[in-house]
Automatic annotation (TrEMBL), chain A:
PROSITE patterns: HAMP, HIS_KIN. Its EC number is 2.7.13.3. Its cofactor is Mg(2+); Mn(2+). Its main location: membrane. The lineage of its organism: Bacteria, Bacillati, Actinomycetota, Actinomycetes, Micromonosporales. CDD domains: HAMP (cd06225), HisKA (cd00082). This is Signal transduction histidine-protein kinase/phosphatase MprB. It comes from Micromonospora inaquosa. It catalyses: ATP + protein L-histidine = ADP + protein N-phospho-L-histidine. It comes from the Bacteria. One of its GO terms (molecular function) is phosphoprotein phosphatase activity.
Amino acid sequence: MTPWRSIAAQVSGLRVRLLLAFALLGVTTTAVVASGSYFQARTVILQQAQDAAVMALTDQLAKVYPVLQLPPTQDELHLLAQRLSDREGYAVVIYRDMREQGSLTPVSLTPELRQEVGDGQIAWQRVSQDGQPTLLIGTQLRIDRPDGTSQPSGLEVYSVRNLVPEQQSIDKLATRAWLTGGLSLLLAVLLALLSARGVLRPVRDLGRAARRLGEGDLSTRLTVRGVDELADVARTFNDTAGTLERQVGELRRMESDARRFVADVSHELRTPLAAMTAVTDVLDEEADHLPGDAGRAARLVSQETQNLTQLVNDLIEISRFDSGTARLALDDVDVAAAVTATLRMRGWADRVHADLPPAVVARLDPRRLDVIVANLVGNAFRHGAEPVSVRLSADADWITIEVADQGPGLDPEVLPHVFDRLYKADTARTRSEGSGLGLAISWENARLHRHGERQGSLVAGNGPGGGAVFTLRLPRGTTDAGGAR
Amino acid sequence: MTGRRTGRALLAGGLLLGTLLAAGCGVRPSPVITGRSAVSGPAQGIGLYLVAQGELVLVLRPVKPTTPTPPSEALARLAAGPQQNERDQGLTSEVPTGLTAAIEVTPATGRFGDLTVRVTGPTRALSPTAIDQIICTAADAAAQAGLVGGPAPVTIVGSDGAQPARRCPAR
């Protein structure tokens, strides 16, 4: 089916159709013109040859007169036949039952010719004798009577003339006609190929440009040649691509503006926050001495200031990823030791079931590994249920860290959005303890690690036991490839 | 749709080519073509009319070109009958041999161009063909001698009276 269709597509393709149309046109025109002129030329050649032969015969016959004796003797008849024969043809002379001819070649005169000659007309006919075209011309020899009339003498002269030279000229004409036809067919095919190229090249260019545009190269443009319909299409394509590029550029600019704004705002907030943190530290110390509502308020302010600081730090971190300025600080790290340190620093060492085989060394950024692991484990404590387990495994190319809890697991609707920024899984819970950026930052950190084709990844899912499972995979030999994006 | 159109065009082209090729190459046999009337020219000698298969046939007896032949000479030769070579060609004469000596030609006196042939015997004994032979030979010979200007009617007069004037039927 498919090969047939491809063959059909080839056959009905533009190129083949143009080729066929041109060839047909060329051949038909040439056939009509060449055959028309061939037939006309043939008629003219034959007519001229016939007329000349008839004229020559009548001229020769004029010298036969006056007729001396009737009936003629056999010798006279023979002499007459000899006189009328030359190298172009020979004569047959008939008187009643007597017959003489100027050649040994047997010749058969057609009855219809003899009939016409017997009726007193000069008559001729082309026949095929022994496969050769032959012209037969016949006439009576009439005798002028003294009273002004003419009387048939009973003598009939037939001239037999070979038409082979005429046949040869006509054959040459035919050969030339065929040659002309062949040449014109060749010319038609060449022209068809040229015009097919002229039509097909813009179409092919258009297809290629459309594909490039579809692949995201918005700067693709076509060269507009000429003023035909195809040039119109190319112009329209260019206009469309231009509009698309402008609009996408606008969108990108707006997006980067928004990101820069967030980054700028975060930075601007840092200084006042530092001051506020210093003040709330003092307030914290004094809160225990404050009575009732004032003490609670002081503690609340202190807590929220800490959250705000965390949020601003996370925003700054995220904006570094967005602007592509995040850099890895690579080091050869004993992964088990690094994870253990992370847990111990957060005071989670006793609450987490850790399965960490020793002597797994990988080249990675220890600070970012710390951020990821802390985020995942903290997340498991906050949203899942204990016991939380951390399992490390490694092969030649990858290290894999799985963080699992025994909670209800992740809702399938939530799963695709887990790593979105500020995504709230539970809409009823308006205030989260985290900034809402932790998992997004972890995801970006994981992707920042790459080695050749291998890029780190962070995947969320549900374990067979029902709890949420976050799987971090990092290439073992990360090389600093500069910007993450 | 396109394929069918192309196919139709191809078919038309093929038919056209086929028709042209069927018309043939080279020199084809033709039917009989007729031109003007046959060649005609003068003759020398005494013209006589003999009979072959019931039709009059002109024969020419060779003579010396210088001596003009009187019409009676031609009639005398006609009455003498066909020669050997003429008989070989199947030519006969119905004019009786006994008639010969008495034949004479006189130009008509009243209307120029009328001829009278006097024969010795009775005209009723002559067959119609014999009469035609005499009339034609006489008319030719008279024209040859300058006695008449064109095809003249001939009256045959015999011992039993005259036949009505007639013209030579052989033309």
